[in-house]
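On to our target:
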Amino acid sequence: MERSRRKRPESLDAYDLVLRAFPLVWSLDKDQNETARSLLAQALAHDVDYPFALSLLAWCHAQRAVYGWTDAPGRDRDEALRLAQRAASLSHDDPMVLAILGAAHSFARDFDVAETHLERARSLDPNSAWAWLRSGWLDVYRERSASALGHFARFRRLSPLDPIAYMADVGVGAAHFVDGRYDDAITWIQRGLSQQPDASWALRWLVSAYVHAGRLDEARRACLRLRESHPDLTLAKVRDTWWPSAIMARILSGLRDAGLPEG
């Protein structure tokens, strides 16, 4: 973040707008995401070539696609990629921008490009906690659980009091899910949710872990929580927002057994 702050754009208005948007982007909250997108659009109106603003806006659109905050996830994925590619063409040496681009490409299912950005971010700044965090999640998506656990551990060592540490805990749970250690997955996902109860996206993992662990009553209760947070959520919408894989098939089967409708 510090390097990104030093690289101020031509317009100080754009810089101030991005600083206001930055914590909102990280909140992983639908309403704050909308506010952040508005602020970032204003920033880009002042300076169309501001890489940090472009990368944050790409991340906002990627969140909308994955967390089910849009009726057109494909359109948001495309916009995330467009913005990310524009930011990458303007900035090659900012670790925070590269880490955000790695996250955006991960959510857009463009895993090879995501890995390239995240590897460069870590190379430029080995102490970039967020680059290690997003690398862990990319490993989860690519079913590399051992590497994911190592990356999440590195994140925790670098930033033990980070307000987004819950994402690493949920990520550890997801890595255990990948390897079929469902009781361990439940423990870690619950730990993450205890820190951030509003992270309802993590309930998809938790519900499925409960089902595969043979804890169907707990799975159904967790599914009710998920549906309270996302009343319109269906299996079809989950399938459309996440990446096609063997893990996805397990998640979907768990959600189905817990009572999520097909849609």
Observations:
- Confidence is low (pLDDT under 50) at residues 1-6.
- The chain has one domain: 2-192.
